Every structure is written in structure tokens, then in C-alpha cells.
Backbone:
């Protein structure tokens, strides 16, 4: 065993928890140093762990669905230089492992935890992992099936439990829940709401989206939100900050995260780095790339690191207002943008009040009240709205 090389989960991982998602090599398969070996998924990103040496994948210690803490041993590689000397021993060990009985199997920590939480005996479950091993996904599947078969309650008026089913939380959902709870417990949230007229932005977009498309770039409204946020940061840089007990850390770079929904999988926040140096076209191009890779589950850890401010464009799913939008700790503020819709508004024309129909949206800034006060919050929103309503490109 001492001649095998450990394959470890990264000591630094982006996200609160990593889960083994896919082994890219099979037991006994030759690998070269640096080859992608196994995929880990956190609540933020999927990353590949590379082979640490040339050799053969000799052991897989964590199956798909198993949780991997930083530095955890995922598997082991038999170095190429010892392979010839160990061939007979490895073949015997492989045969013994594959022919072992259920009682002799090693159950991963994730499976043992599920067994305790669900009251299930993993030895009674048919595994779908390598060599018939039971995975955490198997435990979740069996528990969900048993929950769905629970008997109906008694007749109306009885004290029976209403019919229900349980759906096991994904690791991403569990991590998101922990992050949201930590944010609400850490920061006193306060939300201010303004209204923005998007007439100028819509006019500019209609005039330029064909040209952007010809260059392969989709000009979305989110690109304007990022650019207007940068303009507001120039006026009120304190919003681009982080609270410390002894000081407020104000960042020079405006790294804006964009909340991106992944359907039932949850939410991820890829970051447009150094947005203060980017044109509208460059912002739109980066958003297009990040969003596509987020939904394809191919973001790199660097794509979700270093955010100093976040935008939640929750209006794309129909909501007019969400408050508070939970701050993405350890940032000091988050922008929420509601549904863009035509509304009747009063506008002055030649000194006379007139009723007009304009494309309007509610925009909110939720702040960490330790870092910011009302005057900074309202000033930031004022400059943001001015940038949107006076857009000339």
C-alpha cells in the first residue's frame, strides 16, 4: 500500500462542499501525470482532479455521490515504475475485491451517513457503483422510493399524517441553504427600492443588437445592468466593499457576480472580473461565455472567485420585487432587478403633466447595514438609475 500514490481532493476548493461526480478513468487503466482523472462538483463549480503521476489507477476509494472534504483521498495510483513488480499482486487484489461479499464491502462515509439518517441497511441495497458498490445516490433513490410508498392517511377528521413524499436535497441545494442562512445570521439586511425607466436602454439595444449579433455577441439587458453598476460604483465606491471588525475594505476592482439559475440544480454566481475596464460589448461577450459554461457545468474555479458585488436579475422569472435579496457574503450589497414591463407613468412635457406608457422595472439594493447607511444606499441607486435612464452608449 505504501507504494501507491494518493489522489487527493484539492485543499483549496471553491464552494462549501465537494461531491464526486464522475470518474474519467477505470480501475486498471493507465494514466499519465496531469491527465484528468475524476470530476468534483461543489455548490459553485465542477472541477477536474488530475493524476499526480504516471501509472495505473489501482484504487477508487470514493464513488459517485460521495462527499469529499479538502485533502480527502479519492483513489490511488500505482506508479509506472512499480507496476511490473506488482502486477501479480494487483491482479490478485483486484479479483478479491470484485468477488467480495456484501458484508466485506467498504461503505463510504456518505453511504454510512445516509444509512444512519434514513434508517436503511446498505447491505440490502443493490449498488450501481463500480463492482456493484453502493453509492450515496443509491441510498437517496431507495429512501425516496420508500417515502413515496407510504400508506395513505386515515379518513377525513383522523389524526393521520397527510400524504407526502421526501426528495433528498442535492449537495448544491444543501450548500446554498447553509450560505443563505449564514448570510442572514451575519449581516443586518436593509433594502431600498427605486424605479427605473428602461426606454433609453431599450432604444440603444434595438439599434445595436443586430451589429452585436453579427460579431457573435448577444446583447442582453444584463450587460447594461453591469455597466450601470460600474457607473454607480464610481460615485459611491463604499458599496463595492467588505466589512471587517476594524475597517471597511473598499475594493479597487469591480468584480460583479451574476446570479445564474440552473433549474432544479440550484443557482451559481459566475463573476465578470474588473468590469470597470470593460466596454458594453466586452461585458456582453463575457456574460454570454460565463452563462453558457455555467449551464453546461464547465465553469472553472476562477470563474466564480473574487466577486465584490452581485446582481440578481430575478425579474427574468417574472417577479416584480424580491426583498430582501440575500447578500452574497462576504460582500456588502446586492442589486435586485425586477420584471421589465410597460407601466403608466406621469411625465412632464413642456411644463404639463402627461400620462405615458414606459418600460419600467423596480430596482433594489440590499445592504449590510454594518457597512453602509441609507444615504450611501440611496445615492448608489440614484446614480444607477441615472445611468440606465440616460443611456447613450
Residues:
Amino acid at each position: 500500500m505504501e507504494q501507491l500514490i494518493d489522489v487527493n481532493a484539492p485543499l483549496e476548493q471553491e464552494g462549501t462542499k465537494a461531491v464526486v461526480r464522475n470518474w474519467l478513468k477505470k480501475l486498471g487503466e493507465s494514466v499519465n501525470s496531469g491527465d484528468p482523472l475524476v470530476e468534483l462538483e461543489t455548490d459553485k463549480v465542477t472541477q477536474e482532479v488530475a493524476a499526480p503521476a504516471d501509472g495505473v489507477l489501482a484504487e477508487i476509494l470514493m464513488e459517485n455521490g460521495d462527499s469529499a472534504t479538502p485533502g480527502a483521498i479519492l483513489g490511488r495510483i500505482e506508479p509506472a515504475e512499480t507496476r511490473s513488480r506488482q502486477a501479480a499482486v494487483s491482479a490478485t487484489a483486484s479479483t478479491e475485491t470484485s468477488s467480495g461479499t456484501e458484508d466485506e464491502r467498504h461503505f463510504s462515509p456518505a453511504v454510512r451517513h445516509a444509512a444512519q439518517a434514513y434508517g436503511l441497511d446498505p447491505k440490502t441495497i443493490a449498488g450501481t457503483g463500480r463492482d456493484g458498490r453502493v453509492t450515496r445516490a443509491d441510498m437517496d433513490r431507495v429512501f425516496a422510493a420508500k417515502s413515496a410508498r407510504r400508506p395513505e392517511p386515515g379518513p377525513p377528521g383522523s389524526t393521520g399524517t397527510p400524504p407526502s413524499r421526501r426528495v433528498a436535497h442535492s449537495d448544491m441545494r444543501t450548500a446554498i441553504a447553509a450560505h443563505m442562512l449564514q448570510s442572514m445570521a451575519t449581516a443586518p439586511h436593509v433594502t431600498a427600492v427605486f424605479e427605473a425607466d428602461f426606454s433609453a436602454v431599450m432604444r440603444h439595444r434595438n439599434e445595436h443588437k443586430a451589429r452585436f449579433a453579427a460579431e457573435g455577441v448577444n446583447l442582453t439587458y444584463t450587460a447594461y445592468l453591469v455597466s450601470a453598476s460600474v457607473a454607480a460604483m464610481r460615485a459611491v465606491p463604499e458599496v463595492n466593499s467588505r466589512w471587517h471588525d476594524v475597517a471597511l475594505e473598499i475594493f479597487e476592482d469591480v468584480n460583479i457576480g451574476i446570479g445564474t439559475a440552473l433549474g432544479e440544480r440550484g443557482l451559481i454566481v459566475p463573476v465578470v472580473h474588473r468590469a470597470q475596464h470593460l466596454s458594453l460589448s466586452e461585458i456582453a461577450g463575457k456574460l454570454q461565455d460565463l452563462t453558457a459554461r455555467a449551464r453546461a457545468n464547465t465553469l472553472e474555479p476562477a470563474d466564480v472567485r473574487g466577486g465584490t458585488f452581485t446582481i440578481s436579475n430575478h425579474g427574468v422569472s417574472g417577479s416584480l420585487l424580491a426583498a430582501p435579496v440575500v447578500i452574497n457574503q462576504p460582500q456588502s450589497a446586492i442589486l435586485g432587478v425586477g420584471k421589465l414591463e410597460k407601466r403608466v407613468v406621469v411625465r412632464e412635457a413642456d411644463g404639463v403633466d402627461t400620462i405615458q406608457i414606459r418600460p419600467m422595472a423596480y430596482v433594489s439594493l440590499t445592504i449590510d447595514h454594518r457597512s453602509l447607511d441609507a444615504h450611501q444606499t440611496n445615492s448608489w441607486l440614484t446614480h444607477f438609475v441615472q445611468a440606465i435612464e440616460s443611456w447613450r452608449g
User: Anything to note?
Assistant: Residues 196 and 386 are 8 Å apart (CA to CA). Residues 88-105 have pLDDT under 50 and may be disordered.
